[in-house]
Amino acid sequence: KITFNGAIDMINVEDDGGEDDGGNNDGEGDDDGGYEPPKEDIVCKLDGCRLYYEYCGDFYNVGLMNWTMLLSNADMSGEYLLFDLLTNATNQSDFYGRYELNEEMGEYVLQAGKFIEEDGSIMTYGSWYFNTNSTYYLIPLAKGWLEIEPAGEKRATIEFEFYDEAGIKISGSWSGNMVSIDEIVQSSRSSIARNLSRGDTTLRSVVY
Question: Are the CB atoms for 191 and 75 separated by under 8 Å?
Fold first, then answer.
């Protein structure tokens, strides 16, 4: 089975016998850890969500500015999305624009989601769709696009169309308030703020 803690910062993949299978799937037998992928396209319902964002500088050491964003309600429940995006070499003040999902890093690229193995555990990387009320509660975003536009002071409008590796479409739109990581830390009323107060210092560490 795939299990994760409340902050979605670690994913362990085990077989039905409780032994770590390393997350491998050779196509033979039931080796998917009990994970049930979606069979139909998903239209996201993001009412009550905010866009939490953090400027991370040249996080990947590739000469491009990195931003991490969480489109979620305050308790990270129901549907929410994590965006890991790159702007350009100089933009340190905003993240507006159109991004293409890609495994390769480049200007205005949204990093594709994937599992990586670290210290015997399967970890998440890149951009993801989450749904805590579903059997497919995490889906790595493989292809598609994201567009972010300003909509007034501390507000933005987002449209997106993503696809997972099986071609299932995950789409939606949202317009609402943006909250910086500095503003999150000042509040203690959300799960995000509580995770930060325990010593996590980035949105990555809260979600991953």
Answer: yes
Q: Are 165 and 38 in contact (CB under 8 A)?
A: no
- Give this prediction's pTM: 0.75
Q: What are phi and psi of 151, to 5 degrees?
A: -140, 40
Burial of 8 (0-12, 13-18, 19+ CB in 10 A): buried
Mean pLDDT, to the nearest integer, of 127-150?
91
Q: Report CA-CA distances (Å) from 44 to 56, 130, 160.
A: 27, 10, 10
- The tokens of 146 are what? 């994201």
**pLDDT, tens digit, 9 for 90 and up, residues 37-80:** 788 999 999 999 999 998 999 999 999 999 999 999 888 889 99
Instruction: Kindly report the three-state secondary structure assignment for every residue of 91-129.
Output: CCCCCCEEEEEECCCCCCEEECCEEEEECCEEEEECCEE
